[in-house]
Amino acid sequence: QVQLVESGGGLVQTGGSLRLSCLASERTFSTAAMGWFRQAPGKEREVVATISRSGRNTYYSDSVKGRFTISRDNAKNTVYLQMDSLKPEDTAVYYCAASGSSYAPINAYEYAVWGQGTQVTVSS
């Protein structure tokens, strides 16, 4: 089964940027839709952005639209989340996930494989 490993989290000031990476362990990465989700303390996990197998279709939640960019490099088995203009409310553990769907699903239950998460903290 494919394994996912996130990296790139950390502490940043309001208005700063971070780029998260998620490396998949298998070449079957190119057949999976990928998503980034986040979970803040005391809150439910929520979708941040998703991307289809080909990378042609993407989805962004309203809270990050215009600030975050999801992309993928199938040759490197990696999906990225570029986060700009970060706000304190973006503070959360960020997870990447893989889905067997051909499109870019937005529901967590459609993703079968999850990474361990990476902490993003935005200070005010």
Structural notes for this entry:
The chain has 124 residues and is mainly β. 0% of the residues lie in helices and 48% in strands. The strands form 2 sheets. Strands 2, 4, 5, 6, 9, 10 and 11 form a 7-stranded mixed sheet that branches. It has a 4-stranded antiparallel sheet with strand order 1-3-8-7, with no helix packed on it. A hairpin with a 6-residue loop joins strand 5 (46-51) and strand 6. The protein is globular and about 40 Å long. The model has no long low-confidence stretch (mean pLDDT 95).
Question: What is the structure about, briefly put?
Answer:
With 124 residues, the chain is an all-beta fold. Helices cover 0% and strands 48% of the residues. Strand 5 (46-51) and strand 6 form a beta hairpin.
Q: Give the fraction of residues assigned to helices.
A: under 10%
Distance between the termini: 40 Å
Overall morphology: globular
Total beta strands: 11
Strand content: over 45%
Radius of gyration from the alpha-carbon trace, in angstroms: 13 Å
Low-confidence stretches: none
The number of distinct helices, counting runs of at least 4 residues, comes to: 0
Mean pLDDT, all residues: 95
Q: Main β-sheet, in a few words? A: 7 strands, mixed
The helix-and-strand class reads mainly beta
The helix-strand sequence is: EEEEEEEEEEE
